[in-house]
Amino acid sequence: MVNFTVETGETKIIIELPPEEQLESAAARVRPLILQDELTYHAKVMNALLYSGNASNPPEAAIEALRTLKKEWAAINSKGMTRAYYSVMIQEGDGEISTLNDGSLAFAWIYGDVVHADPERRQAGQVFGVEERYRAAVPMVVRLMVLAMYTLRIIEGMTEIGVIPDLGDVFKEEVAVKRTVIELKAQVHVAEYDEDGNLPKPPAMDEKYSAEWKPFAEVFTPGPSDNPSNSSRKP
To answer: d(Cα 33, Cα 147) in Å, to the nearest integer?
Structure first.
């Protein structure tokens, strides 16, 4: 947002960014799509989709949509050669002027600050500060998320019309934790460490606990002598 104050003639650009931990989570989720060694690398996925599409003779519009999507993915290069939308220049004192585009800054944050401790990327973006790197990373991660969601929709659609092989229950599999408080009914036993700092050997699935293992309730339930109301008082 551009904020212009009439009285002073001052112009400010105001940028609102999401919480860093949210973007870190999103970056970790889309990262396998931009690494060439991963099975889910976007180029491998798009080649497979185009192969399946051409083999099944779908409508030309579907193939054209795949080709366009492939170009969008190819425009993102984790080595910093991504299509740039802006560049940042900085000069420390009278020293040399350093310049990086937004793509390089974004991946300096992803690989230098979050996912990897990549010294080369971190060094390249160090002079610009973490805030500048993070600001560039926000639209980059969002762009990757949008492309990932669009790719998923295309895969779902191609599966429904039989263009690609049946993927089984992959679309029914739960991929997100919905509960943050989990209650489990269980039998809990505890034991003491020996002089060497080792616990007794736990039983196998079909065996009973040895005498060294005590039920949790037996050990930690207060007895009558532990009840303050039963304590004696001296006159």
So the answer is: 10
Cα–Cα distance for residue pair 7/61, rounded to 1 Å: 54
**Both 126 and 220 in a single domain?**
no
Q: How far apart are CA 15 and CA 118, in angstroms?
A: 27
According to the model, what pLDDT value does residue 233 have? 42
pLDDT of res. 81: 58
Report d(CA 4, CA 6) in Å as an integer: 6
Low-confidence stretches of the chain (pLDDT beneath 70): 79-83, 116-117, 223-235
The per-residue pLDDT for 76 is 87
- Do 196 and 81 belong to one domain? no
Which residue among 113, 144, 160 closes a domain?
Answer: 160
Same domain, 126 and 198: no
With residue 185 as reference, give the H or E element that holds it.
none
**Can you give the pLDDT at residue 234?**
43
Contact (Cβ atoms closer than 8 angstroms) between residue 97 and residue 91? yes
